[in-house]
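Side project, low priority. Logging it here so it doesn't get lost.
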Amino acid sequence: MPIIERTADVAATPEAVWSYLAHFPAWAEWDPDILAVSGVRGTLDNGGRFDVRMTRGLSTTIVCSAVTHARRVVWTGQFFMGLVTAQGIFELEPLDGGRHTRLRYRFGMSGPFGRVAGRLNRRAVVRGMEEGLANIVAAVMVLG
């Protein structure tokens, strides 16, 4: 599956956006594909992880890597004994002297079945990414 990218501008500092993303239980609030978050181990830092139960009945452990505080995080989860790997990247770019943030969300699936699953579910993936970004923007604005 080719990497899909979506971007949203947030009227909040990169630190505020990062703080929201760092609250792992909130991922079930903004990501329409996640039903529940549990088993949080660590923080939004290299090696931080948490378990998710997905809306389609799947479960995985999300592991964070390649973290640059308030700038970038890569998260990865595997399904079907590693036959499908889902990877997302959040990048935060300060705008207007750091008063606003451009949030870039990249997502892709790899592995023997990941590429096929990604192609078959592309519309749902795009819809989930767009809804997720809109939810993050709205939540950060409320938390201010």
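Brief comment: The longest helix spans residues 122-143.
Revisit when time allows.
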